[in-house]
Amino acid sequence: MDEPIDDLADRFSQIADQYDDKHGSKEKPIYDACATLVIEHADPRPDDVVLDLGTGTGLIALALAGDAGHVVGRDISDGMIEQARSKAADGGIENVEFGYGEFRDPQYDGDVDVVVSNFALHHLPDEKKHEAIEAIADLGPRRFVLGDAMFFGSTDPEEPLFGHGIDAATVGMLVDVLTDVGFVVTAVERVHDQVGVLVAERVGGD
Ligand SMILES: C[S@@+](CC[C@H](N)C(=O)[O-])C[C@H]1O[C@@H](n2cnc3c(N)ncnc32)[C@H](O)[C@@H]1O
Q1: Residue 192 and residue 153: Cα distance in Å, rounded?
Q2: Is the predicted pLDDT of residue 164 greater than 70, yes or no?
Q3: pLDDT tens figures, 78-128
Q4: The domain containing residue 181 runs over which residues?
Q5: Residue 128 maps to which CATH number?
Q6: How far apart are the CA of 119 and the centre of ligand 1, in A?
Q7: How far is the CA of 58 from the centre of ligand 1 (A)?
Q8: Best substitution site from 75, 81, 118 to test ligand 1's pocket, by max atoms within 8 Å of Cβ?
Q9: Is the pTM value of this prediction over 0.85?
Protein backbone atom coordinates (compact mmCIF):
# COMPACT_ATOMS: atom_id res chain seq x y z
CA MET A 1 0.00 0.00 0.00
CA ASP A 2 1.36 3.41 -0.95
CA GLU A 3 -1.42 5.96 -0.49
CA PRO A 4 -0.65 9.30 -2.19
CA ILE A 5 0.62 11.70 0.46
CA ASP A 6 -2.02 14.36 -0.29
CA ASP A 7 -4.83 11.81 0.11
CA LEU A 8 -3.37 10.64 3.41
CA ALA A 9 -2.98 14.21 4.63
CA ASP A 10 -6.59 15.00 3.68
CA ARG A 11 -7.81 11.87 5.43
CA PHE A 12 -6.13 12.94 8.66
CA SER A 13 -7.30 16.54 8.30
CA GLN A 14 -10.89 15.31 8.07
CA ILE A 15 -10.67 13.52 11.41
CA ALA A 16 -8.29 15.93 13.14
CA ASP A 17 -10.82 17.52 15.47
CA GLN A 18 -11.95 14.09 16.73
CA TYR A 19 -8.54 12.41 16.62
CA ASP A 20 -7.75 12.68 20.33
CA ASP A 21 -10.86 10.75 21.36
CA LYS A 22 -11.35 8.65 18.25
CA HIS A 23 -9.20 5.62 18.92
CA GLY A 24 -11.22 2.45 19.29
CA SER A 25 -11.39 0.88 22.73
CA LYS A 26 -9.50 -2.17 21.45
CA GLU A 27 -6.61 -0.06 20.23
CA LYS A 28 -6.49 2.71 22.84
CA PRO A 29 -4.77 0.93 25.76
CA ILE A 30 -2.13 -0.34 23.34
CA TYR A 31 -1.73 3.08 21.75
CA ASP A 32 -1.47 4.69 25.21
CA ALA A 33 1.12 2.17 26.36
CA CYS A 34 3.15 2.73 23.20
CA ALA A 35 3.01 6.53 23.54
CA THR A 36 4.05 6.31 27.20
CA LEU A 37 7.09 4.22 26.30
CA VAL A 38 8.08 6.61 23.51
CA ILE A 39 7.90 9.54 25.95
CA GLU A 40 9.88 7.67 28.62
CA HIS A 41 12.61 6.50 26.26
CA ALA A 42 12.98 9.90 24.57
CA ASP A 43 14.17 11.23 27.94
CA PRO A 44 15.46 14.58 26.57
CA ARG A 45 17.98 16.77 28.35
CA PRO A 46 16.92 20.30 29.29
CA ASP A 47 18.73 21.86 26.33
CA ASP A 48 17.83 19.22 23.75
CA VAL A 49 16.02 19.86 20.50
CA VAL A 50 13.47 17.09 19.92
CA LEU A 51 11.94 16.43 16.50
CA ASP A 52 8.59 14.58 16.46
CA LEU A 53 7.83 13.19 13.00
CA GLY A 54 4.21 12.48 12.15
CA THR A 55 3.37 14.52 15.23
CA GLY A 56 -0.36 14.54 14.55
CA THR A 57 -2.16 16.53 17.22
CA GLY A 58 1.11 16.80 19.14
CA LEU A 59 0.59 14.15 21.82
CA ILE A 60 4.26 13.21 22.08
CA ALA A 61 5.69 16.65 21.25
CA LEU A 62 3.64 18.40 23.93
CA ALA A 63 4.40 15.72 26.52
CA LEU A 64 8.14 16.21 25.96
CA ALA A 65 8.09 20.02 25.93
CA GLY A 66 8.39 20.24 29.72
CA ASP A 67 11.70 18.37 29.75
CA ALA A 68 13.28 19.47 26.46
CA GLY A 69 14.72 22.79 25.39
CA HIS A 70 12.75 22.98 22.18
CA VAL A 71 10.37 20.63 20.40
CA VAL A 72 9.67 20.61 16.67
CA GLY A 73 6.57 18.75 15.47
CA ARG A 74 6.26 17.92 11.79
CA ASP A 75 3.31 16.44 9.92
CA ILE A 76 1.78 16.39 6.44
CA SER A 77 -1.79 17.15 7.60
CA ASP A 78 -2.73 20.81 8.00
CA GLY A 79 -5.72 19.82 10.13
CA MET A 80 -3.61 17.80 12.57
CA ILE A 81 -1.01 20.61 12.75
CA GLU A 82 -3.78 23.10 13.51
CA GLN A 83 -4.99 20.93 16.41
CA ALA A 84 -1.45 20.62 17.77
CA ARG A 85 -0.91 24.38 17.61
CA SER A 86 -4.22 25.00 19.33
CA LYS A 87 -3.33 22.58 22.17
CA ALA A 88 0.05 24.26 22.63
CA ALA A 89 -1.60 27.68 22.81
CA ASP A 90 -4.28 26.44 25.25
CA GLY A 91 -1.57 24.95 27.47
CA GLY A 92 0.66 28.02 27.28
CA ILE A 93 3.47 25.83 25.93
CA GLU A 94 5.88 28.12 24.12
CA ASN A 95 8.90 25.94 23.33
CA VAL A 96 7.15 23.94 20.62
CA GLU A 97 6.67 24.66 16.95
CA PHE A 98 4.45 22.74 14.57
CA GLY A 99 4.59 22.82 10.81
CA TYR A 100 4.59 20.89 7.57
CA GLY A 101 7.27 18.27 7.14
CA GLU A 102 7.58 14.76 5.79
CA PHE A 103 9.67 11.89 7.07
CA ARG A 104 11.91 12.18 4.01
CA ASP A 105 12.14 15.97 4.36
CA PRO A 106 11.20 17.29 7.82
CA GLN A 107 11.90 20.88 6.74
CA TYR A 108 13.95 21.72 9.81
CA ASP A 109 17.47 23.05 9.39
CA GLY A 110 18.68 23.23 13.00
CA ASP A 111 20.52 20.67 15.09
CA VAL A 112 18.41 17.79 16.36
CA ASP A 113 19.33 15.79 19.47
CA VAL A 114 16.44 13.35 19.74
CA VAL A 115 13.99 12.20 17.07
CA VAL A 116 10.72 10.54 18.08
CA SER A 117 7.87 9.15 16.06
CA ASN A 118 4.71 7.44 17.28
CA PHE A 119 2.25 5.52 15.11
CA ALA A 120 3.17 7.27 11.87
CA LEU A 121 5.95 5.38 10.02
CA HIS A 122 3.56 2.54 9.17
CA HIS A 123 1.93 4.82 6.60
CA LEU A 124 4.99 4.30 4.42
CA PRO A 125 5.69 1.09 2.49
CA ASP A 126 8.86 -0.70 3.59
CA GLU A 127 11.09 0.82 0.89
CA LYS A 128 10.05 4.32 1.94
CA LYS A 129 10.48 3.41 5.61
CA HIS A 130 14.09 2.68 4.74
CA GLU A 131 14.47 6.09 3.06
CA ALA A 132 12.77 7.77 6.02
CA ILE A 133 15.12 6.16 8.54
CA GLU A 134 18.11 7.19 6.39
CA ALA A 135 16.82 10.77 6.39
CA ILE A 136 16.46 10.62 10.19
CA ALA A 137 20.03 9.34 10.57
CA ASP A 138 21.24 12.17 8.33
CA LEU A 139 19.86 14.68 10.86
CA GLY A 140 22.47 13.37 13.31
CA PRO A 141 20.39 12.77 16.44
CA ARG A 142 22.00 10.86 19.29
CA ARG A 143 18.74 8.94 19.79
CA PHE A 144 15.74 7.89 17.72
CA VAL A 145 12.70 6.43 19.46
CA LEU A 146 10.19 4.73 17.19
CA GLY A 147 6.82 3.56 18.45
CA ASP A 148 4.61 1.96 15.84
CA ALA A 149 2.75 -0.99 14.48
CA MET A 150 5.41 -3.64 13.90
CA PHE A 151 5.23 -7.39 13.74
CA PHE A 152 6.99 -9.38 16.43
CA GLY A 153 5.60 -12.63 15.06
CA SER A 154 3.82 -13.43 11.82
CA THR A 155 3.76 -10.82 9.06
CA ASP A 156 0.35 -12.08 8.00
CA PRO A 157 -1.71 -12.31 11.18
CA GLU A 158 -5.20 -13.76 10.85
CA GLU A 159 -6.59 -11.09 13.12
CA PRO A 160 -4.83 -7.81 12.41
CA LEU A 161 -5.10 -5.35 15.27
CA PHE A 162 -5.39 -2.38 12.95
CA GLY A 163 -7.46 -1.82 9.84
CA HIS A 164 -6.93 0.81 7.19
CA GLY A 165 -3.68 2.48 6.29
CA ILE A 166 -1.37 0.14 8.16
CA ASP A 167 1.75 -1.17 6.48
CA ALA A 168 3.63 -2.55 9.45
CA ALA A 169 7.18 -3.80 9.08
CA THR A 170 8.69 -6.67 10.98
CA VAL A 171 10.80 -5.80 14.00
CA GLY A 172 13.72 -7.56 12.33
CA MET A 173 13.48 -5.40 9.21
CA LEU A 174 13.37 -2.20 11.26
CA VAL A 175 16.32 -3.24 13.43
CA ASP A 176 18.31 -4.12 10.29
CA VAL A 177 17.61 -0.72 8.70
CA LEU A 178 18.42 1.17 11.91
CA THR A 179 21.69 -0.74 12.19
CA ASP A 180 22.53 -0.18 8.50
CA VAL A 181 22.27 3.60 8.91
CA GLY A 182 24.59 3.65 11.94
CA PHE A 183 22.35 3.30 14.98
CA VAL A 184 22.68 0.71 17.72
CA VAL A 185 19.31 -0.59 18.87
CA THR A 186 19.48 -0.40 22.66
CA ALA A 187 15.92 -1.36 23.60
CA VAL A 188 13.08 -3.29 22.02
CA GLU A 189 9.77 -2.93 23.86
CA ARG A 190 6.99 -5.29 22.86
CA VAL A 191 3.65 -3.65 23.64
CA HIS A 192 1.61 -6.18 21.66
CA ASP A 193 2.48 -8.81 19.07
CA GLN A 194 1.82 -6.10 16.46
CA VAL A 195 3.03 -2.97 18.28
CA GLY A 196 6.38 -2.01 19.73
CA VAL A 197 8.90 0.67 20.58
CA LEU A 198 12.48 0.62 19.32
CA VAL A 199 15.19 2.78 20.85
CA ALA A 200 18.16 3.49 18.60
CA GLU A 201 21.30 5.33 19.70
CA ARG A 202 23.92 6.77 17.39
CA VAL A 203 27.18 4.86 17.35
CA GLY A 204 29.77 7.08 19.04
CA GLY A 205 27.09 9.45 20.37
CA ASP A 206 27.53 10.95 23.85
C1 LIG B 1 -1.87 7.84 13.57
S2 LIG B 1 -1.30 9.50 13.51
C3 LIG B 1 -0.20 9.58 14.90
C4 LIG B 1 -0.05 10.97 15.42
C5 LIG B 1 0.80 11.12 16.68
N6 LIG B 1 2.19 10.77 16.45
C7 LIG B 1 0.24 10.33 17.83
O8 LIG B 1 0.94 9.47 18.37
O9 LIG B 1 -0.90 10.58 18.22
C10 LIG B 1 -0.20 9.46 12.12
C11 LIG B 1 0.25 10.84 11.67
O12 LIG B 1 1.32 10.66 10.73
C13 LIG B 1 1.19 11.65 9.75
N14 LIG B 1 1.94 11.21 8.55
C15 LIG B 1 1.63 10.23 7.70
N16 LIG B 1 2.57 10.11 6.74
C17 LIG B 1 3.51 11.05 7.01
C18 LIG B 1 4.73 11.43 6.37
N19 LIG B 1 5.16 10.82 5.26
N20 LIG B 1 5.45 12.42 6.92
C21 LIG B 1 5.02 13.06 8.06
N22 LIG B 1 3.87 12.74 8.69
C23 LIG B 1 3.12 11.74 8.18
C24 LIG B 1 -0.31 11.77 9.54
O25 LIG B 1 -0.68 12.99 8.92
C26 LIG B 1 -0.82 11.66 10.97
O27 LIG B 1 -0.96 12.90 11.60
Answers
A1: 10
A2: no
A3: 999 999 999 999 999 999 999 999 999 999 999 999 999 999 999 999 899
A4: 5-202
A5: 3.40.50.150
A6: 7
A7: 10
A8: 75
A9: yes
